Amino acid sequence: MRKIVHSFLIFLLLSLVTFGQETNTSRNFEKETFKLYSQKNWPELIQVSKEAIKEGYDYYYMRMRLAIAFYERHNYHRALIHFNKAYKFNKHDPYLLEYLYYANLFSGRQKAAYDITSEFSSTKKKEFDAANIGKFKIGELGINTVFSDLETGPELISDISRDQFGSQIFLNGFTKINLGFNHTVSRRFSLYYQYSFLMENRFYFYRDNSTAYYLQKQKLYENQFYILGNVYLGKNFNLYASVNYLRGNIPEYSSGWGASYFYAPGFKYNDFTSNLAIFKDFSYVSFGLSMTYSYFQFNSYVQQGVFIRYYPLGNLNLYLTAGYQLKQKVKNGQFYEDGTFYEYKLGFKIIEPLWIEIEGMSGDLQNASTQLGAIVYNNPNPVNNSIGSSLLINLNKKSLWLKLSYYYINSTSHFITENNLPSDINTVNYNIHSLFGGLSWSF
After folding, report:
1. Domain architecture of the chain: domains with CATH
2. Residue pLDDT, tens place only, 6-35
3. Which listed residue, of 28, 243, 305, 330, carries a Cα 20 to 30 Å from 87's Cα?
4. Which has the closest alpha carbon to 277: 324, 227, 229?
5. In angstroms, how far is the first alpha carbon of the chain from the final one?
């Protein structure tokens, strides 16, 4: 990056004499801003350049100096405004194109950055393609361990009378392993694939008019296949489409013999969720809309979401995200409101290379999905609130990250009647603790 600045400085020196003949003002803004640029006096350069532009002295070199001043102060969002203005004056300057590339890249706008390389010279294009646009790489490798602080046992169902038929589930904990891959198909199109395996331990109670039993450690196995496509539409628009298929299996269980024999049948399900979202990047703000269709436990649901992310410093060192989701249940072609929930996140840099994220969700999360369909809440017990934090460590400049997370989750277990409807019978609130550790490459 220093080479770019030095080369650009030489370029400015060579052009100064010629340009000076074209600029004749009572206050020589060209000379003044060039001097401040040479001194790397970025705060004063920003002030003087704004004054010059306000008075009508708006041209390529003025915009470039102002943009570089913001760039050197790591305000990439503001720098992009002026680099784009400079682009209108001169679309073919290789120094400008490189600055546009890095300003987008350091703003987290990877697709927009890659798209700019199409305007590079053939030599520079090959250099950037080889160094920065890997075709296929690991996207995530991680393990998630979840445990409940609830002591499970027969005493949990003591409030259920003998004439009440149905079932109830309490989560003991689970382990989930993720393996994901990023596939850059072209500058504007990429895919992310992820496979997850979930093994869940449950306490399960069941009663009908002839049988009653509880399983201290019922097992649930779930295989999850997720694919996300990202298309850069240009003009800072990104389109995302995803499908998440979940195939679950609860093995059958039998115990004892003779009069003490009982049998619990197995159960299989095929759930899925699909998501379509579009995001627009503005200066300091990204805005998004999403639509989700899900099929969970033999019922259909739709979600409509709105999201906003704010970058107060014009870079990735501080960001705030908020989201709102409306859920609806679909039955016989009719839509019925099924609850709402909120998402929020605060992320900030501590010191290089450490970041912290604090995030949470609140509302009705049962039969919902988040994070572009990657996270699914298809468990019979609803999640009411979730809050946690993550430590992110950047291991190298190729966007390799180590992530360590803890989440505190509140859930509720209800007795589910024989017609498969939750009730207020034997309502139990309990807490879940989630620990995650993994490696990932930014996507």
Report:
1. 2-132 (1.25.40.10), 136-441 (2.40.160.40)
2. 545 544 554 444 344 344 445 789 999 999
3. 28
4. 229
5. 23
